[in-house]
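Blinded run. Sample ID left blank on purpose so nobody reads anything into the name before looking at the predicted structure. Input follows.
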Amino acid sequence: MPAETLEFEEPIAVLLKEIDALTLLPRTDARDREIESLRRRIESVREELYRSLTPWQRVLVSRHPNRPGLHDYLDRLFRGFAEVHGDRRFADDHAIMAGFAEYRGQPVVVVGHVKGSDTKEKIFRNFGYARPEGYRKALRVMRIAEKFRRPIVVFVDTPAAYPGIESEERGVAEAIAVNLREMMLIDAPIVVIVSGEGGSGGALGIAVGDRVLMQEFAIYSVIPPEGCAAILWRDASKKVEAADALKLTAPDLLQAGAIDEIVREPIGGAHTNADAAARLLDEALARALTEISAVDSEVRLEKRYAKFRAMGRVGIDFVDESTA
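Blinded prediction complete.
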């Protein structure tokens, strides 16, 4: 199966192989027409497949190696990005980038996870697993944004916070907890975009905002499916069942009130067309920033607090038995 296809995309892989075989033949009008016909067929099959993805298939799409990351969106949506390094306590965590940029001519602050594109960069970025210094760096930059009244745009794409011993020694749980508290109080418009994997506290540590947008085939969950399966069933192979039980898809989370809007992706997912994915995201981001920037500061903070306090409620009315 071609490297650019996922395990459930076998029909697409077959058509791609046919195209590869045709490209080796001498170029003729008939050959070109056949290739174009196969490409149209791929679009049709891809559209049909992606119309009814299972939760586990959405997990695979969110982890696709070619899925656009923070660097891709910085190149396409922002101008003049100037990165800030270090938390002024311990080190610079390369799994989280933060800095200043312009978005549609407006000064903003951009914060986000970075997984890396090739093997060397993935190791450098720790595969997107942030350590405590990453969350402290993010908060440091967000406080600068508050000082200069700059909106904050956050990109979430991480399997989880780094679980290593050194991460625990430097207080990763405390760093995430502080971010949750402080982001609730930061007096600046905050738009959060779940663009890939939104894994556990590693995601939530920079994901408190006035608007939480989620790309169509991203995931957002308290734990990765493999970890959930290992805990509940003592069997990581139950990951498919775990993905279904976790309700980690964008439609599930919109229904539960954990996100505010689903951002459409190109047919076949953002990895098939990063430019189109950026255009669709641009529309949603611009609208969200305009809306929340127009709200009075005090009201915006109250709404942000109320939004996250309401999460987790199941709608059950409790009856006081003493008066029943």
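Unblinding after everyone has recorded impressions. The longest strand covers residues 190-199.
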